[in-house]
Amino acid sequence: MTQPIPDTALNAVEKTGFLDIELDPTLDLFAEIEKLKKEKNAVLLAHYYQEPDIQDVADYIGDSLGLAQQAEKTRADMIVFAGVHFMAETAKILNPEKKVVIPDLKAGCSLSDSCPPPLFKKFKEQHPDHVVVSYINCSAGIKALSDVIVTSSNARLIVESFPKDQPIIFAPDKNLGAYINKVTGRNMVLWNGACMVHEIFSLEKITKLKVRHPKAKFIAHPECEEPILRMADYIGSTTGLLKYTQTDDADEYIVATETGILHQMMKASPQKTFIPAPPENNCACNDCPHMKLNTLEKLYLCMKYEVPEITMEEDLRLAALKPIKRMLEISSKAGI
Ligand code: 13P
Ligand code: SF4
Q1: What is the position in ligand 1's atom list of the atom closest to the CA of 136?
Q2: Whether residue 54 sits in one domain with residue 103
Q3: Does residue 295 have a pLDDT over 90?
Q4: Within a domain: residue 77?
């Protein structure tokens, strides 16, 4: 049953993006969240970039493809999405009949924001003979303008499913697009977007780290810029990076992606050392400020009161559903 929400807290959600209700500090949030999952038949899906406490209480932790696949097949009545807005929105697009809640509605994504639908529509009109392949890190508006969606796990596979002479627009990540162009020998037209976290790594500091840790492997997410990727021993999605550290025989890794993934790497291989690749300045810029807006407290409150909820116009949902379904079908046929 949904709990009644204090009016002031509900009114504030529109402005703040989350429920701000004071909690008793003695409350065991882990136990309470488990209780709410059962009471509401809710599934808690979390991305690897969430803070460790949220990962530890999740039913499933994964990369963007794994999370979309879980959202597609869940039988739960409510999906609690501990990730950013475009991920929860994808879950809603796949599950119009289910309630999808997110701890903080303002957990956005710089990459998604770099591609506003009205501008992208004009860009698309300038390339009428191109198909549109969009990275899942985009809004429902961009998905609705796309022919197929990809993630960093399946981008290569899906791009290669088109004939070599098929002109393609790739949006919104220019770094992932350039990487896929390089490995497939394509010449896709790239939208000029990027992720604020993956663009901040310092080539110089990573080079110095490699000198100090000569046996460490350097692994990177394909949202990183080309000079960083050129140095990498392995390039892959968050799931790909995690699996690599589990199967590879090195003892040390320098990891160029958001720091949240290190939690699962350390859990899976406690005998190994994981060093986060350093950013340009001394900020904590390899922590995604959007992902980290979600906290255990906000997570508990959104489950308890079922607010904030992801909602969407049905026309937009149906238009965005088509390219997502196409991605899921191609991935499933390929066994990923
Ligand atoms: P994956 O988890 O799909 O590798 O994506 C990384 C990312 O930046 C998500 O926002
Ligand atoms: Fe977006 Fe980058 Fe944060 Fe992922 S890490 S949610 S791509 S800003």
Answers
A1: 3
A2: yes
A3: yes
A4: yes
What residues line ligand 1, using a CB cutoff of 6 Å? 63-64, 137, 151-152, 195, 221, 223, 237-238
Nearest-CA residue for ligand 2 atom 6 is 109
What pLDDT does 1 receive? 61
Atom of ligand 2 nearest to the CA of 109: 1
Range of the domain at 146: 111-195+317-334
Q: Which residues pair with 149 in a beta bridge?
A: 134
111, 191, 257, 285, best to mutate for ligand 2 pocket (most atoms within 8 Å of CB): 111
- The answer to the question of residue 135 being in a domain is yes
Structurally, how many domains does the chain consist of? 3
In a shared domain, residues 263 and 119: no
Nearest CA to ligand 2 atom 3: 288
Q: How confident is the model at residue 86 (pLDDT cuts 50, 70, 90)?
A: very high
Q: What's the CATH number where 234 sits?
A: 3.40.50.10800
Instruction: Give pLDDT, residue 106.
Output: 97
Q: What ligand 1 atom has the least distance to the C-alpha of 84?
A: 10
